[in-house]
Amino acid sequence: ALSIFVGTRNGGYVVSSTGDADGLAPQPLLALLHRTIYAMLYVPAWRQLLVSTRGRVLVMSYRTNPISAAVVGDTEPSSVRHEWVGANLDHHVLGFSLSEDPTSASDGSEGASLCVWLVQKESLHRLTQEGQLWRKGFQQGAVVNNLTSVVVTGSGRFVWATSSSGGVMRYDVVRDRWNLFISERYMPSEAP
User: Fold this and answer.
1) 16-68 confidence digits (pLDDT tens)
2) How far is CA 33 from CA 11, 24, 192, in A?
3) Between the CA of residue 76 and those of 23, 26, 27, 83, what are the distances in Å?
4) d(CA 171, CA 192)
5) What does the pLDDT average to over 136-160?
6) CA 88 – CA 191 distance, rounded (Å)
7) HSE (side-chain half, CA atoms, 13 Å) at 148
8) Residue 115's pLDDT is what?
9) CA atoms within 13 A of residue 109's CA, in its CB half-sphere
10) pLDDT in tens, 2-12
11) Cα 10 to Cα 48, 91, 172, distances in angstroms
12) How far apart are alpha carbons 58 and 127 in whole angstroms?
């Protein structure tokens, strides 16, 4: 069977192709029942599903790859951990982007040189397989807020973020530098 993860206002689901004439068989993920899902990303090399809900980011780990589970229904995680919004994260995550980590000294194991970028209203975060978070936001020199999406290019070197006001900025991971391309720059002297 081949499966995909789907997030809705009423929970998270695994939709599996059963291979028969009936087509698809959606199954609820019990850990996500009755939760609003803002974003989801499955990282095959880590066998982890990242899920943004109100108040937390869930990291659901699997023993086997649920995307190609041999048995439909074998899609519940072996463990679930979470990062609370209000601790390291200040707002629910609006999107995820998987990329190579150009700063990683990889040990050669599968997935070790990968990272996931999380976008929130006022910051970006880089997440490693070990669960380490690095914040790159207003307090670290980001030039606009109200971020809405994230895209990674250049083998993970450049992280692009857009804002609700139409702004576009780029973070250079290697040089640890922000560039503003379109938008008004926020100036602390203009704060209410």
Assistant:
1) 776 665 666 678 887 788 889 999 999 988 989 999 988 888 888 888 766 65
2) 5, 19, 40
3) 21, 13, 10, 19
4) 27
5) 82
6) 23
7) 7
8) 92
9) 5
10) 678 889 998 88
11) 21, 20, 37
12) 13
Q: What is the DSSP letter of 122?
A: S
State how beta strands 79-84 and 158-163 pair: unpaired
Tokens representing 54? 């109100």
Query: b/e for 37-62, b at 16 or more Cβ within 10 A?
Result: bbbbbbbeebbbbbbbbeebbbbbeb
Dihedral-angle region of residue 67 (phi above 0 means left; psi in -120 to 50 means alpha; beta otherwise) = alpha
The reported pTM is: 0.80
Residue type for position 122 = E
Place of tokens 């040990």: 107
Which has the closest alpha carbon to 152: 106, 118, 111, 104?
118
Helix or strand run (H / E) with residue 7? strand 2-8
Q: Which two tokens stand for residue 89?
A: 């994260």
> CA–CA separation, 46 vs 114, rounded Å?
9
pLDDT tens for 163-186 read 888 888 888 988 888 887 776 555
pLDDT grade, residue 73 (50/70/90)? very low
